[in-house]
Design goal:
By secondary structure, this protein is mainly β. Helices cover about 5% and strands about 50% of the residues. It is built from 1 helix and 34 strands. The strands form 9 sheets. Strands 3-2-1-34 form a 4-stranded antiparallel beta sheet, with no helix packed on it. A 4-stranded antiparallel beta sheet has the order 4-5-6-7, with no helix packed on it. A 4-stranded antiparallel beta sheet has the order 8-9-10-11, with no helix packed on it. A hairpin with a 7-residue loop joins strand 27 and strand 28. The chain is globular, with a radius of gyration of 22 Å.
Amino acid sequence: MLRMVTMIAAIVLVGCQALQSEQALPLRGTGDLGLIIERATGSVLVIDHSEHDVLGRVEGLGDLSHASVVYSRDARYGYVFGRDGGLTKVDLLTMTIANRVIQSGNSIGGAISQDGRYVAVSNYEPGGVNIFDSETLETVLEIPAYYVNEQGEKDQSKTVGLVDAPGNQFVFSLFDAGEIWTVDMMATPPDVTRFDAGKEPYDSLITPDGRYYIAGLFGEDGLSMMDLWHPEQGATTILPGYGKGEQRLPVYKMPHLEGWAIAEGNAFVPAVGRHEVLVADMNDWSMVQRIPVQGQPVFVMSSPDNRQIWVSFAHPKNNVVQVIDSQTREIIRTLEPGKSVLHMEFTPRGEEVWVSSRDSNRITVYNTRTLEEVKTLSAQKPSGIFFTNRAHALGL
């Protein structure tokens, strides 16, 4: 009897402590919060972009080089994909690690399903995609991404360009196999379908309406596109031979397509190994223009109103960001936020953009109307910046 009374007392005490802990949390929403990756220290900063304030730091996330983040539907939790195969669930309100698993030897980003139930991770080593329950991080499905290599042997492919798509699907590309796969998470068991793409797809994007999935090709000029409304048509090549007959420059950093830009019915895409931003007509995917820029573009991102295109660059000219007017397609400003610019993120309505400068240990905030600096914040080797409004956008 005494033991039972003691147990009840202990449960009540724990319950009271949990309640007190919850009550101690600030009463606030998460719509203006975000995470900034500190790649060298395995930590993330929790920031408030309304107040330009760093709320706290969460440590112990492992190797965060090339890390990225997706958010739960309620925008309370960030899922951080580390390079060491770590998948970490971060609570933005308590600024703690809610859960963490090591799911591979080398991963390269991920996605969360349309219904928020599943988190998928794309892997280099050993390859394939792993899918987890977003609440518990328990494994739901492993997709090894097997293919037959040039030696006729069964092998696993590196997977890249993983995105969520309408219909509770995931879509990703196989770098080694030259294929695009779709995973239908509404089917029981989940249904995997494979399509031929092109040589060495290195990254991809999905249009904001979720209709078109486009993979950049490193092994050949052009891009591979799938119309997800008509997957039976397979993948087709767009912008074929845009660099045909030209001398390709050494590629210092692969461009990222996830932050691609759409404006005035055109898509603005970074060219691989060239000092150009390509402009394609989205009606027929023909080349409209090549915009010369100061270096090899990495991120080509449009402001939420599509009025401006912001471009970051690979080494050695990576201390500069250029801003392009989407109507005139002319460069209207060249900015120098700091050494080694790695990422940019617009506030949800686009009045500001945050820019990370790794080797300056600095985040610079610009007003997008005046293009003037608003604020700088200190960070340890910052790279990716991810605001919680991504929770409600396809492909982010």
